[in-house]
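Quick check before the chapter quiz. The format below is the same one you will see on the exam, so make sure you can read both the input and the output lines.
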Amino acid sequence: EDAFDAKQVARLTQEIDPVEEHLEEWLRDHGGTFLIARADEITFTTHLVLGSEFLRRFVCAPVLAGLCADLVGPDVRLYWDQAVYKKPHTESPFPWHQDNGYAFIEPQQYLTCWIALTDADEENGCPWVVPGVHTMGTLAHEYSDVGLVCFDQPAEAQPVPVRQGSIVVFSSLTPHCTGANRTDRTRKAYIVQYAPDVAEVLHVDGDGRVARTP
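Here is the expected output.
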């Protein structure tokens, strides 16, 4: 809790907002949807570190480096970064999934740090998790209009309300979702993920063989 103060969060938001606004405009000009992003509902602004020196320094912040050292190991790389903005009055939840369901990584378990840029609660779309299921490995996922889905609402699901500047830390194998945003404010999160230096992405090439990309 309270990993980053209000000044740090304001600077993060200052770096991310203009890029997200440009993405929103692009979505509106191209039919309103692209993959799992939907204009005026939910946006996924990826690879922000490539355009911001501040964010490149931020993802190496001591609290994040310490989490990586404790939970992943001594040799860690930034695997992915993205801002996820859930817009006001978005009724659709983002469905239950594991992060490793979107791109199969070996070793399967890497680290997700969900940083709240605004307060997140059950009214505006805080994360929900199912504890313990990460021990089962990567589950089967099915396609839907709003993203990959590994199962419907489980009885063991727990909401994780989180204050601005705090981090929800979980395994890439932890099933999670976010609920609707029924408020008048955009719920903002910056998500950074870290994998062991030896990690590889597995995918099927044009010949039907499994290929590995570092």
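If your answer matched, good. The chain is about 20% helix and 30% strand.
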